[in-house]
């Protein structure tokens, strides 16, 4: 398969507008799934699509080495002296919306190669990685070097918080035979500087509505006499987190936080000095709505206030437990007579894997070989739900890798994948699959 053919496939996938958050484009999601299904079948994979209701399908494609005896049971280990492993590889085929479209210099759904960059929505997040995975498998098959079982796990609702992923992944019991999972949805530290992520923060989103009356009240008549929900919200939030030190004041909040060893801190400092955004939790107000915000003045006491806030969690904190602590804190810190409503929070735990596991160490060697630079080990302040779910459900090492660069504009206009890193990434994945 030459470069032109690979870019042609990549271009076809990018041209499908698989924006998962846009229900009007659900057909495009199905079209992308069908495109990938066909590609996997062409590689000789056994493919299954799993869906709940009408959700974007989870695609599972299993490649079994050609020398393995024919068997209806996939993932049977080849009976060769060099026993093959089963390697799981995750990527997602849904993308973020393209707006604001006027900021794009090239059409978002038309793959455009320019000045060493491959432009288009989803090129870096995450269709480029998905194409790299498919290409690596194909190339290894062509030269008869693929002795391992490869299980592709391609999700279609990563950008809408992977809400069905856990349920769908459990529908295939053979996945428990996988030795290690690679989540290919991350980026490099810089051009030719590879990194492996072994930790991610979890996240919980909260929505709190405080209500003190049925309608807005006249501040001249009712001022000093009634509670003001905007004031209550401000007081509550300032009790919950210290705006200067960022310390979270909820009792018990830090009880389970994983301690970071000296060795790990040294490792992390090599890759980035902003440790604080990776190893500590954070609470942030994301939005506040209350009262009159139009032009001029309206002298009222608002009837309601709405606060949206989120907590980033670190390893060993349990999102369900933290949710309960937050709810208790709100109950104890609002006046008894005040009505409030908590929308069921949506949360995910942090992800953490031992960076010393042999798969991670071997991958670091592969990267050094391909990119000619030391591999950094890193933790991200962000969250990838699938990584935490794969690890919790299957209890195997999960290694987060990727080849996009920090200026790849993911989720933004002019998203791109560096051409050189795209081709080198394919070589790296080949080496991982052939290990
Ligand atoms: Zn992604």
TrEMBL record:
Pfam families: M20_dimer, Peptidase_M20
Every Peptidase M20 dimerisation domain range: 198-336
Gene Ontology biological-process annotations: proteolysis
Highest taxon of source: Bacteria
GO MF term set: metal ion binding; peptidase activity
UniProt keyword list: Hydrolase, Metal-binding, Protease
SUPFAM superfamilies: Zn-dependent exopeptidases
Family matches, as InterPro entries: Cyt/Met_Dipeptidase, Peptidase_M20, Peptidase_M20_dimer
Name of the featured protein: Peptidase M20 dimerisation domain-containing protein
Organism: Candidatus Roizmanbacteria bacterium GW2011_GWC2_37_13
Lineage, highest ranks first: Bacteria, Candidatus Roizmaniibacteriota
